[in-house]
Amino acid sequence: MKKLWLKIGLSFFVLFFIVMVIVGLISGELMKGVYMNMKENQLQDDAKILLTTTKLEDIDLDQDADKIQADLVPLEDKIDARITVIDQSGHVVADTKEDPHELGSHMNRPEVQEVLKQGKDVGIATRKSSTLGYSMLYVAVPITHNGVTDGVLRISISLESVENAVHQLWLSLTLVFGLALVFIGFISAFIARRITRPVNEIIDVSMDLANNRYYSRITGKTSGELQDLSLSVNQLAQSLEKQMQEIELNQQRLSGIVQNLVSGVMLIDQRKLIVMTNPMMEQIIGEKDLTGKAYFEVLKSFALTQLVDQCLEKKAFQQEEITIYFPRELILDANVSPILSKTGNVTGVILLLHDITEIRRLENVRSEFVANVSHELKTPVTALKGFAETLLDGAMYDEVLLKKFLTIIKEESDRLHRLIMDILELSRIEQKHVSMNLEQVDVEDVVIATMDTIRPMAVEKEIQLVPPILEKPIVIHAERDRLQQILINLISNAIVYTPQNGEVRVGVIENEANDTISITVTDNGIGIPVKDIDRIFERFYRVDRARSRHSGGTGLGLSIVKHIVESCGGQIQVESIEGSGTTFTVTLPK
C-alpha cells in the first residue's frame, strides 16, 4: 500500500502535469498561429511593395511576359521567397524558381481563385508544392489595371523555416515545462509530506490504540482541522488509557479475590467448556489446567453435573448440598448461577463450591458435646437427687448411712464442680480470654513441683514417677501455672491409664536448632487403639469410659491441654502402641 504523502504528491503532480500539457499545447498552437499570421502579413506587405517597385500594374502581362521574367530573375538571390506572376486566365507569366512555360495553369490554386474568382484583396493557402515537393505558404495579391484585375502576384516561402521555428518553440516550451514540473514535483512532495505528516501520526497513534498501547500521543504541531483532530485523538487516548487502567485494576482486584477465595469457583461458557477456575476449585476437584475442558469431563460427580445441567435448562439459580467421593470424600455446598444476556439467553454459568466438610464435622462434634455434657451432668445430678431423697425418706436417722450418703453427695458435688470448671476453663481458652503472664520459668523445677503435687495419686496405684535428668537448667519464657496445668493433665492421665506397679516417665529436651523445648510424658499403660488416636483431643472422648469415669475424670483434660499448648504457640503429638504404652510430646517455643 502506497504511503499517503506519495498519493497526494502524485495527485498534485499529475494535476499540474495535465494542466501544463494543456496550457503548453494551447500556448504552442497560439504562438504558431501568431507566427504564421505574422508571416502571412509580411508576405502580403512584401507583395504590395513588389507591385509598386516592379510597376506590374502598368504593364500588359501577356505582351511583356519576357520583360517581367527578366525583372524578377535578379530577385531570386536577394529574396528568400518564390515570386510568381499569373495572368487573368491562370497562366504563369513569370516565376523565380521554374520556367513559366513549363508550368501549367494555376487557376485551380486556392489562393489564385480567392483573388481572381472571389475578388478578395489577398489569397492565402498552405500546401505541399507539386513542383517543389515541400510545404509552402502562398500569399497572392491582385494586379489591377484601370480598376480591373489583370492577374495575380503570388509570393510563397518554404514552411521549413516556419516548422523549424515552431519546433524550436516546442523544444523551449518542453524544457521550461519540464523544469517547472521538476520544481512542482519537489514542491508537491514537500507540501504532501507536510500535510500528511500529522495525518500519518494520527494513523500511527490510532493503530497504537488498537494494539493496546494506550500511552501513545500525537506530539507534532498542526493547525486548523488537523489540530482539532489531533486534540480529539489525544483526549480519546487519554480517556482509553484511564479506563483501561481502571479495568486492569478491577481485573487484578477481581482476580485476587477469586484466586484467594476459600470457595471453589468455575466459569462455564455456553459451549459447556470451562473458561476459568481458581486454585481452590482445582484443589477440590483434584486436577489442574482445567481451562478448555468440558465440565462434565472434569466433575466426577453425577449430582454436580446434573445440577449444572438443570441451571442451563431452567436458566435459574440452583443450590444443593452434595457429597463427592473423589479425589477424597467431601461435603460441598454447591451453587450454580446462570449468566443471562439482555435477550434472556444463557451465555454461561458460575459454579461455586464451598467445602462444608469441617462445618458438618464440627456440627456433629457439637451435637456429641451437647449429648456428652447432658450425660455427664445428668449422672452426678441424678446421684445427688437420689441420695438426698433416700435421706429424706428416713435414712438420715441412721448415722452410718447418713455419713455414707453425705460422703457420696460430696464426691458427686466435687465431680460436678470439676466438670463445670473444666467446661468454663475450656471455653475461656478457646475464646482466648485467658491472659498470659509470661515469665522466665525453670522447666525442671515445674516438672518436679507437678510430680510432688500428683504423687499421692501415683502412690495409691504404686506407680513410679521418673523425673527428667538434665545436665543444665532449661529456662523458657512462659506462664508457670499454664505449664503446670499441662503437666498435671498429662501425668494424671498417664497414671489413670497405667496399671498397678507401672511407670510414668517425664523427659525434657532442648532443641537448639529451632529454639524450642520438647516435654515428653511416657507411660507403659494400656495404650491407645489406632482408631482412637485422632479423636483423643475431642471433648468428653474417652478410650476406656468405665476406667475414666471411675477415676473421676471429666473427659476434657486433653482438650484443655491442646488448647493451652496451641495458645502458647506450641504443638502436641501422641505416639501409642496398644498394650505397650503411650508418649505425649509437647513442643513449646523458648
From TrEMBL:
Residues 193-245 form the HAMP domain. It holds the Pfam family PAS. One of its GO terms (molecular function) is ATP binding. One of its GO terms (biological process) is cellular response to phosphate starvation. Its EC number is 2.7.13.3. It is a multi-pass membrane protein. Residues 226-257 form a coiled coil. The keyword Membrane applies. Residues 372-590 form the Histidine kinase domain. Keywords: ATP-binding, Cell membrane, Coiled coil, Kinase, Membrane, Nucleotide-binding, Phosphoprotein, Transferase, Transmembrane, Transmembrane helix, Two-component regulatory system. It is found in: Cell membrane. It is an enzyme of class 2 (transferase). NCBIfam families: PnpS (NF046044), sensory_box (TIGR00229). This is histidine kinase. It comes from Listeria weihenstephanensis.
